[in-house]
Design goal:
Largest sheet: 7 strands, mixed
Strand content: 35-45%
Order of helices and strands: EEEEHEEEHH
Structural class: alpha+beta
Radius of gyration: 17 Å
Shape: globular
Helix content: 10-25%
């Protein structure tokens, strides 16, 4: 069994909307469907950018272009440590073809993301990276993000 795995997440943008997909989870008895962004496992030999493009093509049939990385995340479940990187990617078509593990999809605006995506950790991550516009430097509280340069004599 592998001890580490690397995931990529594609936050797919078409014009001013973003693709949310609905997925079934067997281990969630009372709420098995969850809205989220696309994600998948990076395969051996792939770069994260190549992996996110492949995942978008395989899962929803979209050709995408990587714009930039947005945030990273990680968690441990049992004996497996998972790390991931989320990318903002652009597509020039809203037409999707869902893979078997996806139940539904819809294009949402930035304002709708926090109302549609049901994983609170993902919503918090996209707020923290500045993707949702209601985030600002004041959200860091009293933390001083600006470090003065050292005087070298």
């Amino acid at each position: 069994m592998e001890k580490f795995r690397f995931l990529v997440k594609g936050i797919v943008r078409y014009q001013d909307t973003y693709l949310a997909v609905e997925r079934w989870y067997d281990d969630r008895i009372f709420d098995p469907y969850q809205w989220e962004f696309l994600d998948g496992v990076m395969e051996f030999g792939e770069t994260p950018e190549t992996a996110v493009c492949r995942v978008c093509s395989e899962r929803v049939g979209l050709n995408v272009e990587v714009v930039k990385p947005l945030y990273t995340w990680g968690f441990t479940a049992g004996e497996v440590c998972t790390a991931g990187i989320a990318f903002l990617v652009d597509t020039n078509s809203p037409e999707t073809v869902l893979s078997e593990d996806l139940h539904d999809c819809r294009w949402v605006t930035k304002d709708e993301i926090s109302h549609v995506i049901t994983n609170n950790n993902v919503v918090e991550d996209i707020r923290n990276c500045g993707f949702i516009e209601d985030f600002g430097l004041d959200d860091f509280g009293d933390l001083d993000l600006f470090i003065d340069p050292m005087d070298i004599e």
